[in-house]
Design brief:
By secondary structure, the protein is mainly beta. 13% of the residues lie in helices and 35% in strands. The N and C termini lie far apart (73 Å).
Length: 457
C-alpha cells in the first residue's frame, strides 16, 4: 500500500509538470498587424553609407504614413544602425547578402545592423526573409561578418512589442557578441523589456565560444524556434543587463525554446539568472553534436558592487529543459574553466594547444550532457555559494559514448585533482597570435608610430 501511494504521488507530480508546461503556439507570441502594402526599395550596394541612409529614410516615411512592407531584392548591401520603427516589416530576398558598413573615420568598434526599440517604444515589426515562415534554408537571406577587430550584432531588440525576426543565415568570424541580443533600452527602465516576439529559422556559423545566435538579457513571452549554431552557445538566457540599484526586478519570463541545435561549440542552451529572481524558461528539442555540453545551468550569485542588486538570482522552479539528444566527439570549443574535468595528461595537451580564432576556447572533445552548479546535487548551497534552484529535466538520449563524463550531469566537484600546478605555456607560434590580437585592440596612441592600423574600426 505504501509503495502504491508513492507511485501515485510520483505520477501526480509528473502529470502536474506536464500540464504546467509553457505552450509554443506561435499565435501566442506574435500577431501580424502590419498593413499589407509593399514597397520595393532599390539599394545601391555601395560601401559609402548611402544604403543605410536610404533604408532609414524609407522606414521613417512609411511608419509615419501608417506602416507597411519594405521589400529588398537581390544584391550585396553594406548596412549599419538601421533604426526600425513601428508597423514596419522588412522582407529580404533569398539572394541578398548583408555585411556591416563602417565609416573609415568611425571610432566605435561595436554596433548593430538593425536597432529595434533602443531609444523609444517600437510596436508591430518584423525582419524576415520573403517566405517568412519557411524552414527551407534555401529561402533564407544571408549576412556575413568579415574578419576584423569589432563587435557586431545583426539585431538589437529592447523596448519592442509584437515582433518577428526570422529566415537568415549568418557567417561570423568569431566576433564577440551574440548575433541577436534582447536587452534593456537606453532608459534602463526594467519595465521596458522586449515582449511578445518570435525569433526563428536562423543558422549561425563560426561563432565565438561565449556568444551565439541569441542572448536574452531582458525579455518576456519570447519564442525561440529552429535555431542552429556552429560554435558558441546557440541560445543564452543569461541576464545581467541593467542590474543597477538594490531592487530585485524580474526582467526575463515566459521564454520558450523549440528545436535548438549546436555543433562544434560550447552548448546549445545556457541559463544563468545572475543576481535577479527570474521567471520561467521552457526549452524542448535540444540537439548537441561534438560540443562541450548540451545544456549549461548556472547558479545565481551575489553582486559584489555596493550599489548593485541586493539579491542572489534564481529561475522559477517550474522551468523545464528536455528532449535532449547528444552525440559526443572531437571538435568542441572547450573553455579553460572546463579543463578541470580532464585528466592531467589531457589537460596539459589542451593548455599547450593553439586556441581557436576566438582566443577564448581550445579544440577538444565533448565533456558531458548537462553542466550545472545550481542544484543541491551539484553541491550548491544557498547563500555565499550561490542562488540554488531546480529545473525539471526531461528525456536525455545519448547516441554514442564519446564523452569525457559517463553520467548525464557534470558538477564542479568532479574536477580532477592532483595535477602539476606548474605553468604550462602554449607554443611560441600560438603566443604570437595572441599578442597580435591584443595589439590590434590597443588604442592607436599606445601602439606608437610603428603600430598596426585598426582598419578604421
Amino acid at each position: 500500500m505504501k509503495n502504491l501511494t508513492l507511485i501515485l504521488l510520483f505520477l501526480t507530480a509528473f502529470v502536474g509538470i506536464a500540464q504546467d508546461r509553457l505552450t509554443d503556439n506561435e499565435s501566442r507570441f506574435y500577431t501580424n498587424k502590419i498593413p499589407n502594402k509593399t514597397t520595393e526599395l532599390k539599394l545601391t550596394g555601395r560601401k559609402d553609407g548611402t544604403d543605410s541612409e536610404l533604408l532609414n529614410s524609407k522606414i521613417t516615411a512609411l511608419s509615419k504614413s501608417g506602416g507597411g512592407i519594405i521589400q529588398i531584392k537581390k544584391g550585396t548591401y553594406y548596412l549599419i544602425d538601421i533604426v526600425l520603427k513601428s508597423n514596419i516589416h522588412i522582407k529580404i530576398d533569398k539572394d541578398v547578402m548583408i555585411e556591416p558598413y563602417f565609416d573609415k573615420n568611425a571610432k566605435k568598434v561595436s554596433s548593430t545592423i538593425f536597432e529595434v526599440g533602443k531609444e523609444f517604444l517600437v510596436e508591430n515589426v518584423a525582419i524576415t526573409n520573403t517566405d517568412e515562415d519557411s524552414e527551407n534554408q534555401a529561402t533564407w537571406f544571408s549576412a556575413n561578418f568579415p574578419k576584423g577587430e569589432y563587435r557586431m550584432k545583426i539585431i538589437t531588440g529592447c523596448n519592442v512589442r509584437n515582433f518577428k525576426f526570422s529566415g537568415f543565415k549568418i557567417t561570423d568570424s568569431y566576433t564577440p557578441f551574440s548575433c541577436i541580443a534582447l536587452n534593456l533600452p537606453d532608459s534602463k527602465d526594467r519595465t521596458e523589456v522586449a515582449r511578445l516576439g518570435i525569433v526563428k529559422n536562423i543558422l549561425l556559423v563560426d561563432s565565438h565560444v561565449g556568444y551565439g545566435v541569441i542572448q536574452i538579457q531582458a525579455g518576456k513571452s519570447i519564442l525561440c524556434k529552429n535555431l542552429e549554431g556552429v560554435g558558441g552557445v546557440t541560445m543564452r538566457v543569461e541576464t545581467g543587463s541593467g542590474e543597477t540599484g538594490k531592487e530585485n526586478v524580474l526582467t526575463v519570463d515566459d521564454i520558450v525554446g523549440r528545436n535548438i541545435r549546436i555543433k562544434n561549440g560550447d552548448a546549445a542552451v545556457n541559463v544563468s539568472p545572475h543576481r535577479v529572481d527570474q521567471g520561467r524558461v521552457d526549452v524542448e528539442g535540444i540537439t548537441a553534436i561534438n560540443s562541450s555540453f548540451a545544456v549549461q545551468i548556472a547558479a545565481g550569485f551575489e553582486d559584489k558592487k555596493e550599489t548593485g542588486v541586493d539579491n542572489i538570482g534564481t529561475f522559477d522552479s517550474r522551468s523545464y529543459i528536455g528532449d535532449i539528444t547528444v552525440t559526443g566527439g572531437k571538435g568542441a570549443q572547450v573553455k579553460s574553466k572546463d579543463f578541470i574535468y580532464f585528466d592531467c595528461a589531457e589537460r596539459i595537451e589542451l593548455q599547450t594547444k593553439c586556441q581557436n580564432p576566438d582566443f577564448e576556447s581550445t579544440p577538444g572533445r565533448s565533456i558531458g550532457v548537462i553542466r550545472t552548479n545550481a542544484t543541491l546535487a551539484s553541491g550548491c548551497k544557498n547563500g555565499s555559494d550561490g542562488g540554488c534552484y531546480e529545473i525539471h529535466i526531461g528525456k536525455i538520449t545519448k547516441t554514442n559514448s564519446e564523452f569525457l563524463m559517463a553520467g548525464n550531469y557534470t558538477y564542479k566537484n568532479m574536477g580532477v585533482n592532483g595535477c602539476d600546478k606548474a605553468k604550462v605555456e602554449r607554443s611560441e607560434d600560438c603566443l604570437e597570435k595572441v599578442k597580435e590580437k591584443k595589439k590590434k585592440w590597443e588604442p592607436k596612441e599606445k601602439q606608437g608610430k610603428q603600430g598596426k592600423k585598426n582598419n578604421g574600426f
